[in-house]
Fold this sequence. Notes:
Two copies of one chain form a homodimer. Chain A is built from five helices and 22 strands. Chain A is mostly beta strands. The first copy, chain A, folds into two domains: about 5-215, Sulfite Oxidase, Chain A, domain 2 (Alpha-Beta Complex); about 235-349, Immunoglobulin-like, CATH 2.60.40.650.
Amino acid sequence: MEGITVEELQLAARNHALPLETLRSPITPIGLHYLLIHFDIPEVDAEQWRLSVGGLVERPFSLSLEELQSRPAKTLAVTLECAGNGRALLSPRSLSQPWLLEAVGTAEWTGTPLAPILREAGPVADATEVVFTGLDRGVQGGVEHLYERSLSLDDALREEVLLAYAINGRPLPPQHGYPLRLIVPGWYGMTHVKWLSAITVGDGGFRGWQQEEAYYFQRSEDDPGTPVTRMLPRSLLVPPGIPDFLSRERFLASGQCVLEGRAWSGLAPITRVEVSDDGGASWADAELGAAVSPFAWTGWRFTWDAVGGAHELCCRATDAAGNTQPLEPEWNVGGYCNNAVQRVRVTVS
Amino acid sequence: MEGITVEELQLAARNHALPLETLRSPITPIGLHYLLIHFDIPEVDAEQWRLSVGGLVERPFSLSLEELQSRPAKTLAVTLECAGNGRALLSPRSLSQPWLLEAVGTAEWTGTPLAPILREAGPVADATEVVFTGLDRGVQGGVEHLYERSLSLDDALREEVLLAYAINGRPLPPQHGYPLRLIVPGWYGMTHVKWLSAITVGDGGFRGWQQEEAYYFQRSEDDPGTPVTRMLPRSLLVPPGIPDFLSRERFLASGQCVLEGRAWSGLAPITRVEVSDDGGASWADAELGAAVSPFAWTGWRFTWDAVGGAHELCCRATDAAGNTQPLEPEWNVGGYCNNAVQRVRVTVS
Lengths: 349, 349
């Protein structure tokens, strides 16, 4: 890997990854879930804050946090992964947050469904999209903007889409979007707008930087590319044994060793996880557990007969739509969607 | 800066820093406090877990978590900073966790004082030290070990030293040492042993790797060095204005701008914070608030008249013992105790 720059390191310090041993927990404890914060965490006075719902609707209105909390509540376990997860493993790489493998987490989000709120506002006949505006402002790509993303009206009306005010049973902490964030189960993290302040129905004219400039999968600078949307399948394993502090290489004793991990896909349920102890030359099926929810990762286990020597452990997930993880990443300009298999070096003695 | 290696990046992903805007909070919210975890976060069954108190004592015993929680409780706000904070700003730098500036946090730790427990055990007449053993095991410097640190018996008997089972009013989360961690106010973070399982009184024979190999301030490889102990003074400011995503350079409008930040020292109370807007060529005094506790950081404010152009903001703390922050770091082999002033590039328009 080319050396990481100080700019990338600054981002790696701010933006927290999941320590891989935390994959043991079906629900990620607060403080261990990944974080990607483009600008600064805004200071929000929840007493003053309101969510506005407007644009091309019959009946624009706004809601206080209390009003949102008095609406029907729903709790969903949802796996979120950053679209840039794996970016630092591409070469050459886009200068941005240099994620390796661990930009993921699963939380129980509590909120109120978005669809009834949109229906109450009443999108006009030619409405096609919904823009979600956060309170976080900054400059990216030379353009000053509030963080904003849009969804098609059809995607925004899906019943699993939530306006979340709680995580793991507690009010959102500042870093997860207090007081309100959008949750769009199955989609990469950029979709789940934090510090949400406005929902604006439109007819397709939204050209926000985070929608039109970022988050496109482009095979070259000339490729117009395709928008990044739902999470590709990925599996991760809890590195077995004990680590070396610096290299994170693992050491364990020979004998039976239960490998465990999690797998997820935003495209379809996970149907298969395979494990390799020879860097992907040969594979064996792991035993799948139940998914934590229809929108969260699936646990898996594999009893490995660890024999002396050096090994490279890998795991590979496949979903019901036939998508599977590649052995090597597919390079792209922005460093998105790198779901190539994890590789963990282990010495068995 | 020389490019960061993949080994350092792996550590930067696992070990979380404080986003600097979070300095606005006197008490750091859970999930934003810095974390440095040498090995893996251990899985601990609190029902089975006991703290053993032994070694050169008259009456060795052990305590369950419930027994610890039924003892007299004390809550202290304590600022913790990693001894390696600032390491990545040294050149050449030691290959370890590549902290820039943000390896700090202040939490309200609740626990029971250590001194009465030591007195109940009754150190023998020639006892001089106390060894604290965590449950986290790994390899560092080629040596497999549990994470262990010692204190002199005198330091261990100080009334502010706690065995903490709660942070910010809640049970410790896994990453902060569940179910029990040592808190030694004023000392750098390596002292506050997490996942504490044993307290062993000794007579000076402890030679643990984390005590004797790591955490020495050595000016060269030949320098025997001095042990790293208490936190040197440091101040940090909340970067004003809005950031550029990648460079973290700041942009703000001209006019009066209130700069704010925090300052701390483990050696003596903070008595002065100065601010510079020209990279340290000239300084002006900031207004100090009250310390959050005798063992926590002090807030400060400075009304800056921001005029158009490029500026480099710095802040510099001084404590009652006359220690002050240097403009340039003092290089050392392990990359410890770099409390050189923070520098924030700002463009005013």
